[in-house]
Amino acid sequence: MPACRNISFFPQPMSTLERIYYLHARIRAGRYPNTTSLVREFEISPATAHRDVAYLRDRLLAPLAFDQRRNGYYYTDTAFHLPFENSPPLVLILGLLGTMARQTGLAGLPELEELKQRIQGLIFPGQRKIEDLLHCEWVEMEPVDRDVFRDVLNSLRKQCRLRFIYRSGTGSVSERTVDPLKLVSYQGRWYLLAWCHLRGERRMFHLGRIAGTSLLADPADHHLDRGDDWLTASFGIFKGPPRFRATIRFTGKAARIVCHQLWHTDQEMRADGDDILLTLPVADDREIMMKILQFGAGARVIAPQELRQKLGREIHRMAALYEK
């Protein structure tokens, strides 16, 4: 029987953090807040308000002092800031959060918008919206259905099986039941690494090609161990143990570009005069062929011979199209 789909995968409201930032903002503004201010603003107990003040003073090391005449708190060091306050890296992270949501069709999720607005209001009050400061762009995006994304995340969290309809790259359609292993983001696309019960092996599923998801009550039997290198052992999105190590010679402008790039953590790169020789592990030749072709005549396969010949045949077929 399918399980209910209303499991929330977003964090609970950040009430404590909200109160701490509220207190901090009032102190920085010279308003001399006290525990009564917190009780009135957030409808909490006096004991909770006193714990918030203690947390700000003892855990966050705020230079907090109490002014008896003004009946409120102030900072003895006006340069004090909370952790992450006005942090440029955090601005970037939040901007990426919103951009990735739009690119994957998740921008309208109320939980996501609420989370983003809360953090924006807490940490960057009165400042420009994050979207005004950042532009991110990915090409060849395939939007992900919101319900699909939600069910995938819930199946990962609950470690339960997931059933869905899958459309492969060739257009064939099949029903799959999987044990979810990990959500993968690669080149602006979302994938689910899972154990496929139909194929009896690990498979990578493009979320943009998944439809009709349903969470199952059955627990997942397969899991990804911490030291498992299946995702990192070879180049590209086509994962698995390497079948061969490819060596490519880059010349001219291509060499000057590639010498600064990391294609895989296990790559070897060496200079040969003005050329660059790049060697890396490959499990599937489809993506490495596309990467080589993007450099045109500036890249040439040295090994293995099988890849060299396959790429040569593809180039001849391409040339024939233009000769006609």
Walkthrough of the structure:
The longest helix has 19 residues. By secondary structure, this protein is α+β, with helices and mostly antiparallel strands. The chain has a five-stranded antiparallel sheet with strand order 6-5-4-3-7, with helices on one face. Strands 9-10-8-11 form a four-stranded antiparallel sheet. The chain has a two-stranded antiparallel sheet with strand order 1-2. The N and C termini lie far apart (58 Å). The chain contains nine helices and eleven strands. It is elongated, with a radius of gyration of 27 Å. Helices cover 35% and strands 24% of the residues.
Descriptive terms for the model:
disordered N terminus, Arc Repressor Mutant, subunit A, SH3 type barrels, 4 domains, 324 residues, 9 helices, alpha+beta, four-stranded antiparallel sheet, 11 strands, five-stranded antiparallel sheet
Given the structure, what is the number of helices?
Answer: 9
C-alpha end-to-end distance: 58 Å
What is the approximate shape? elongated
Number of strands: 11
Quaternary status of these chains? single chain
Q: Name the helicity range.
A: 25-40%
Structural class: alpha+beta
Count of discrete domains: 4
| Major sheet size, sense and barrel closure | 5 strands, antiparallel
Name the average pLDDT.
86
Ranges where pLDDT stays below 50 over 5 or more residues in a row are 1-14
Which strands sit side by side, in order, in the main sheet?
6-5-4-3-7
Q: What letter string, H or E per element, gives the SSE order?
A: HHHEEHHHEEEEEEHEEHEH
